[in-house]
Amino acid sequence: MFANRRDFLLSGACAASAALFGSAAARLKAQQTEPPPETTTVRLAKGPSICIAPVYVVSDLLNAEGFTNVVYVETGTYTGSGASQGKAIWKSDVDFNLNFSGPLLLEIDKGLSTTILAGIHVGCFELFARDGIRSVADLKGRTVGIQSLESPPHVFLSAMATLVGLDPNKDFEWVTSAKVKPIELFAEGKIDAFLGFPPEPQRLRAQNIGHVIVNSAQDRPWSQYFCCMLAGNREFVRKNPVATKRLVRAMLRATDLCVSEPALTAQRIVERGSTAHLNDAVQTLAEVPYNRWRDYDPEDTIRFYALRLREAGMLKSNPAKVIADGTNWRFLSEVRRELGG
């Protein structure tokens, strides 16, 4: 019998990891050929969206990689504006951040200390609208709720607008609110559309509020590109290449755990305080494609969103410059070979 729930969860994580990645002895032998990490402390950003599920199950895997001190830093990444929030993240001793691809490009364009290292999962955002609105094009002249400019919903909705020939700066009536969440305005019928990230879509569907006009896990072209990507503090990556590779490996293993051990992962999400509702976490893990990081090229995601955001007037750099200034795929390439990707 296990002494407590933590022992049970730890046992489950270890068993799941062994099933996924071979015997513990084989993994240990492979890791012994690498030098130890340059630091045993790693700081991970933690925001309110539960689609960053790998963050919540990665701690045991990081311990196995030699990180004895895994620190979670509350950043409020989801609701903050892109540029100011990016500065806050990298100035708050955060070493790695699992964030939405669009805002990461804005950080790189503004010269922040952001290096994208890998794509994690595809499609977690959903666009809800009121009756009579059936497409993004139908949002012309309508009210669209966002927490702030350059927040993830603002960035992704702007990309959607340009793809259908709309100008997000002129054709949407943006409604920003620092006190009332856009989901609440939508539920009260005060705005026409709202783009949500887990657990928001799960809650709206449970309450039968509005209808989905874009599901990025299912609808093209959004389902063909990464939503969340792993980024590191550029200085940390430069100074700590061994630690960075070990972090990338652990995070991708954690992403696999979201597929192979959804019950364990959902429980961890609740225990970390990202949602009080286990069912929200279970639904998110069932609906978000965590199984495609081996199949998709993260550069494709950057090219796609960089073009859309340039069209929207939000990005100055071209895709090639963003890739040159703000990416490093070396660690991903090495880990893919190890994990069979």
TrEMBL record:
Residues spanning the signal sequence: 1-18
Classification via Pfam families: NMT1_2 (PF13379)
Keyword Signal: yes
Assigned keywords, A-Z: Signal
Keyword Signal: yes
Gene3D superfamilies cross-referenced by the UniProt entry: Periplasmic binding protein-like II
Superkingdom of this protein's organism: Bacteria
Protein name (record): NitT/TauT family transport system substrate-binding protein
Organism encoding this protein: Bradyrhizobium shewense
